Amino acid sequence: MKDNYVIGLMSGTSLDGLDIAYCKFLKSADWSFEILNERTVGYGSHLKDRLRKASSSSEAQIETLSNDFGLFMAQEVHSFVQDHQIVKLDLISSHGHTVFHQPDKGITLQIGHVKPLFDLFQKPIVYDFRTQDVLLGGQGAPLVPIVDKLLFPEYDACLNLGGFSNISFDLEGKRIAFDVCPVNIVLNYLANQLHLEFDDKGSIASSAFVDEALLDYFNSLTYYSASFPKSLGWEWVEDNILPHLSASVLTTEVLMRTFVEHIAIQISTIVNKHELQGVLLSGGGVYNEFLVQRLSYYAPNCFKVSSDQLIDSKEAMAFAFLGLLRFKHEINVLASVTGSVKNHSSGVVYSEEL
Predict the structure, then answer these.
(1) Domain carrying residue 298
(2) pLDDT digit string (tens) for 300-346?
(3) What are 109's strand-pairing partners?
(4) What is the pTM of this model?
(5) Same structural domain for residues 119 and 182?
(6) How, if at all, do strands 174-182 and 164-171 pair?
(7) Same domain, 150 and 298
(8) Is the CB of residue 90 less than 8 Å from the CB of residue 123?
């Protein structure tokens, strides 16, 4: 069997930076993978601010930002390839950066034009993974569960703690997955109020107390009682979370502590309800040691922490794999996960457009 060498790119809603992963995939009886090199590149204050404000920008501004972000990706991948002296490369797979995600309105938009990547590398570029699923009646998210199913079969569930938390596991013979609740997209927002990028290890939140009234409000939000498939986006946070944080007279530290408790309760409720014992944790939120402690308080002995490499680059690796599946015309989106009318192979291959 032939090894497949793919670079995956992921830009998450928490705006931590562009994740780049150079991966090798091999299919014999089952799929296997190796992350050969990985890197996260910060955006710089100007680009980060533009990405943060993109959802309220004009169509022309978004188009300009998509061009600029595409150039940024190309430059950073070029530097990554040179630094690691990468020679073997079959394709590049880019998630892009999400500006809009309102699947119930038939809307999802990930920006980052891929032509600069193609111009530099002359390799197929796979992108725009979510649009087809939304057109087929799905949520367009989460997309990683098929990766969890094929590459991490030894775990009961896979839980990503990124801008949002999302979980995937088998239920009655089918893979299901959904966004559980916001995580870093809110915690980092609050850390920014203290002129910090993030709450290192959760130390700030751990020093404060929980406001029970605010916690009750967060836990009562209707999203949590809705059945899956379901997914979250920045717009939901703007409508349901930020107004209550902004209007609160509580200190930022108390808000952070309360939201950590909210996250732990929402995630552990799912884990306990479905009796999930081996839950693989990944995503930047795993570095929030206090959050992981609170998760373990509500669901003891259930969570398994990934290696640092997998914590940092699982999503970029996942989109590398999703791009490879699409390039091979294999199913990479599960209807049982997104709610679309059928399983399908989603994503646009740039080389096909030339």
Answers:
(1) 145-309
(2) 999 999 888 898 899 999 999 999 999 999 999 999 999 999 999 99
(3) 100
(4) 0.88
(5) no
(6) antiparallel
(7) yes
(8) yes
